[in-house]
Fold:
Amino acid sequence: MILHKGETLFRQGESGPLYHLNSGLLKIVRLHPDGSQYLVNIIVPGETIPHHSLISPRAYFGTAVALVTSEVELLPAAEWYQSLEREPERYRTIAMQLQDKLSLLQQRFDQLTETAPADKLRKFQAWFQDYIKPAAMTDVLTQDEIGQFIGLRRETVNRLLRKQAKRQ
Structure:
């Protein structure tokens, strides 16, 4: 299935199938009781989501929204879990997928532990550029989302982006 920018794949709290992202990018946002949203993850091509449901079914942790036009393959939950029972060697594939996600999270921790805000932003831009060339990160994410993802206030992101633009 094709999702266009801004379209929702699934909503927080619902249950349903798993999905494999063939191309594009998705964001996972978490809705808080006060109605505010917080960007918690970015899904890149090759990932199967939701990660926490790869071995056993669970409700969706957040809402998945397309950041760009994305091709997503639906994986019916019943078929997915039955195939794991029939083919236990598939657990190794799942373990490798989770290992790859952990590597991405380690990169994110490196971004978050930078002491200088400009370095946090620079590292995130470099990582993100691998997935959205030739677009700019700000064409895909809002300044608020960038700030949420790297632990900065929107105002700080705005100031840093303006400073970068002046240098170019």
